[in-house]
Design brief:
258 residues, 6-stranded parallel sheet, globular, 28% helix, alpha/beta
Length: 258
């Protein structure tokens, strides 16, 4: 497993939610464009089945696997997430906008560097696992934190037959032992089944288009959102436009040393 170099993040001033050493924190990243009931269902399933203290929603500035023309401003998505979550154990975060890169690997490496005593678990839907081999340094993501995959309608077989699932088949934790996941060294993962929601952000956007519900692009600037203003930060000139997954160069095999 390749360890992230701490000096990469020495000068990063990202504001993380409060967390105590030893806590188990689930991480659910994505565009949340828009957030919907399935996001909350996945989070509540993870909280219960994995025995987590909290789940953080990591709202990304952008994702190259999705068309930017359909991406609502991040300020709007953050506000919508906070309204939908409505759960004191679900924390909506915007810290990824402060990072030099929004690749999932880079975000998770930053969190391990910044909070090495916290037991983080990466949470994803089965649809994401099915396409994870397209992600930047996906093998090393498995080496950073344990991973919980939540079943999604129509994706179970594709997810379990995916290259990442086959590559780490021997490290799959039985679903009955899911509560041990946060305390099991990576690479390890589990697949959780349960109530399924057919809702997706793509379907919601398509429905909005059919109803001619155009999402405004004149959103409140990110730096002017209430929780940002409290930090006395100067408004940003422009929001960073980072890539989320696709690598600009050919991926090399991760180091197997510590």
């Amino acid at each position: 497993m390749a360890k992230p170099a701490p000096d990469h993040f020495l000068h990063v001033k990202a504001h993380l939610p409060h967390v105590e050493p030893g806590q188990a924190i689930g991480l659910l990243g994505g565009s949340f464009n828009p957030p919907h009931a399935a996001h909350r269902m996945i989070s509540e399933t993870a909280l219960k089945r994995l025995n987590l203290d909290k789940v953080w929603w990591i709202v990304t500035p952008g994702n190259p696997l999705k068309r930017r023309s359909e991406l609502a401003p991040i300020g709007e998505r953050l506000m919508a997430c906070r309204a939908l979550a409505n759960n004191r154990r679900i924390e909506v975060t915007d810290f990824e906008t402060d990072l030099p890169s929004a690749y999932t690997y880079s975000t998770l490496a930053f969190l391990r560097s910044r909070s090495p005593l916290v037991r983080f678990v990466w949470i994803m839907g089965a649809d994401n696992l099915a396409e994870m081999e397209k992600w930047y340094r996906w093998r090393e993501i498995f080496g950073l934190f344990p991973i919980a995959v939540i079943d999604r309608p129509g994706w179970r077989l594709k997810a379990l037959a995916s290259k990442p699932a086959r590559a780490y088949a021997g490290r799959r934790l039985p679903e009955a032992d899911a509560k041990l996941l946060a305390h099991t060294p990576p690479p390890t993962w589990t697949f959780l089944t349960g109530p399924l929601s057919p809702v997706s952000s793509t379907a919601l956007r398509a429905k909005a288009k059919r109803r001619n519900e155009v999402v405004t692009k004149k959103a409140q600037p990110l730096a002017e959102l209430p929780w940002r203003r409290q930090k006395n930060e100067a408004p940003r000139a422009a929001e960073p436009q980072h890539s989320q997954e696709a690598a600009p160069v050919t991926e090399t095999a991760p180091s197997q040393g510590s």
